[in-house]
Amino acid sequence: MREPVTGFAIWITGLPASGKSGLTRELAGQLEAKGVQHVVLESDALRKVFSSDSQYDDNDRDYFYRSIAFVGKVLTDCGISVIFDATANKRAYRDAARESIARFIEVYVDTPLEVSMQRDPKGIYKKALRGEAAHVPGLQAEYEPPVKPDFVFHGENGNPEDAARDIVRMLEARGLVNA
User: Does 22 reside within a domain?
Assistant: First the structure.
C-alpha cells in the first residue's frame, strides 16, 4: 500500500498591512524555485468567493476561516502545499486549522499597529477611523497574536526575502522541503 502524500500548510498571520502579502510573495517565489507545488490562499480573493457581502463580523469570520482551513486541508491531503495569506485575527481560527492539517506552520508578521496604519495600502484603517468600517483587526476587532509561532518576521524593519529564505531553511530542517 502506498503511503499518503501530504503537503504542508503555512499560515502567515499579522495585522492588516503588516507585511503578510510581501512575505507571501517572496516565500511563494522561493518555493516555486525549489519545485515545490503550492497554492496561495489569499483572504481578500477568497472572501469574494465565500462571502462576497461579508460584514467582517464574528459570524462572517468564523464561517470564512473554517471554509479556507477546509480548503487548505483538502489541498494538503492531496499533496499540494498551501500558504495562507490571511489575518485570522483570533487564535482559535489558526488553532483549528493546525488541528485539522497534519503539517502546519504558523508564521507571525509582528508589525506595530502604528506602522501598519501608516502603510494602509487598501485604506482600511482610514475607513475604520472615519466610521466606514466596523470590524478592523487592531482597532475595533481584537487581533490575538500567536502564542508560540513557528517563525516570527518583524515586518517593521525586516527583509521579506531574508525571512522567506529562513522559512525555507526551517522547512528543509523539518523534512518538508528537499534541501
Answer: yes
Cα torsion angle, 50, 101, 11, 89, sign: positive
Mean pLDDT per 10-residue run, the chain (179 residues)? Answer: 71 96 97 95 75 69 90 95 95 96 96 95 90 87 95 94 97 91
Strand partners, 12: 85, 107
Helix (H, G, I), strand (E, B) or coil at 81: strand
Under 8 Å between Cβ of 139 and 56: no
Quote the cell numbers at residue 118.
501608516
44 three-state secondary structure: helix
Interacting residues of 135 by C-beta distance below 8 A, sequence separation 6+: 55, 56, 57, 61, 141
pLDDT at 44: 76
Phi, psi of 117 (to 5 degrees): -65, -35
Q: Is residue 2 included in any domain, yes or no? A: no
Cell numbers at 41, concatenated: 490562499
CATH code of 152's domain: 3.40.50.300
